[in-house]
Amino acid sequence: MIPKDHPRYASLVKREKIAESAWDGVVAMEGVGSHGRGEAFDYLIGEKTIESALLAEKTAAALFLDASFPVISVNGNTAVLAAAEIAELQKATGAVVEVNLFHRTEERIVKITKILEDAGVSVLSGRAEKLLDLSHDRALCLREGIYKSDVILVPLEDGDRCEALVNMGKKVITIDLNPLSRTAQTATLTITDELTRALPNITAACRDLGDEEQKLLIENLNNKEILKGAIEAIQENLSNAMD
Amino acid sequence: MIPKDHPRYASLVKREKIAESAWDGVVAMEGVGSHGRGEAFDYLIGEKTIESALLAEKTAAALFLDASFPVISVNGNTAVLAAAEIAELQKATGAVVEVNLFHRTEERIVKITKILEDAGVSVLSGRAEKLLDLSHDRALCLREGIYKSDVILVPLEDGDRCEALVNMGKKVITIDLNPLSRTAQTATLTITDELTRALPNITAACRDLGDEEQKLLIENLNNKEILKGAIEAIQENLSNAMD
């Protein structure tokens, strides 16, 4: 049991959830390691929403509101950590939610769909087809979901998959704590923030943004600057740690 | 299968080994996440032995050569990643090797001992007693091993455990890729390097160090400066990434 007054309680609870979900076959073993990498970067940005991430979250909301066919792609880690937050974001955006896994098995799709539905998410079902320009099962997605999207949120995504979606002309929003990762560098818009902090901020912005602000955020979208903000935040924290 | 020409082949092979060993019950599920955190920091230091780490590795060798009763504490991750390297270091130092686990079960002790013995390590056996100033099973160690050590290498160690050993007056050497971790900050000497790069460097220095150099390394040991070197290396890599 993690004591509730532990200074890093929230982070440790998430770590435990991910570990338990690996035993349950919901999270892939590789997902446990990915979560660890994310934790390290979250630690470095100070385990809080930095300024450039908040701008990215508002811009994500603007892209969602501007979309013709918005989609949210959900994997095991995302479902375990943030099913309720995905439900809220779906309500605010009307986006289609598709379960899409890097380490894909039917069993995991079923388990993750159940977690999402129990949290109030409406999950798209259908027969997956090889529609992405990738080898093997990584090409699989739904014709009426990811394939059809113009704006797509892929939290915690693989670099190849992210690039394939960008190459299809989609506006790809990712949530990735490593600002140097290939996913972060390739996406249209990168949110360097922890998932359960990022999603509610996008949802809130979807509800609050005015038309003019929405337009300006999209016009001024500069992912390179947003990533630079994240890297600078890490550098500042490292400098402070040396004092 | 990971293609051998993948630029990050060595790192991906280690990731796979750790994941497989979790299914085998050798590595704790928590160890999979820890490995992920380590990977993130290794990425940030450039996946190579930085200058301050090489100095720390030579200083570790000097401490080993100067010790009356050197001990190497080995956990699941260390055994899976570096059993052969532990065997070599044991040969070069004459250190006692004790299996000591944060998530301790008899079953894991037996499995890890076998991995080490198969690689040629002589592993201390005996009845563990609560000899460290920590709660529960984390206090357990062997009277003729860790308890008796004056110099102890604890790769990939927990912060509380590291602090307890320091408080017992031992010279504690750790290998920890996060220069900001409590373990890194608490140890007598911190090597910010990946395990399978660090251990052979210590072994080589044990064989090469002259008496005068050994003495100077110990006299000039300044862990704060060593950690500063690691943090500066990360900052430099981040600056280069922004160009």
TrEMBL record, chains A, B:
It is an enzyme of class 6 (ligase). It comes from Methanochimaera problematica. Keywords: ATP-binding, Coenzyme A biosynthesis, Ligase, Nucleotide-binding. ATP binds at residues 15, 37, 176-178, 182-183. The keyword Nucleotide-binding applies. GO terms for biological process: coenzyme A biosynthetic process. NCBIfam families: phpantohe_syn_Arch, PRK13761.1. It comes from the Archaea. Belongs to the archaeal phosphopantothenate synthetase family. Pathway: Cofactor biosynthesis; coenzyme A biosynthesis. Catalyzes the condensation of (R)-4-phosphopantoate and beta-alanine to 4'-phosphopantothenate in the CoA biosynthesis pathway. InterPro entries: PPS/PS (IPR002855), PPS/PS_sf (IPR038138). Its EC number is 6.3.2.36. The keyword Ion transport does not apply. This is 4-phosphopantoate--beta-alanine ligase. It catalyses: (R)-4-phosphopantoate + beta-alanine + ATP = (R)-4'-phosphopantothenate + AMP + diphosphate + H(+). Homodimer. One of its GO terms (molecular function) is ATP binding.
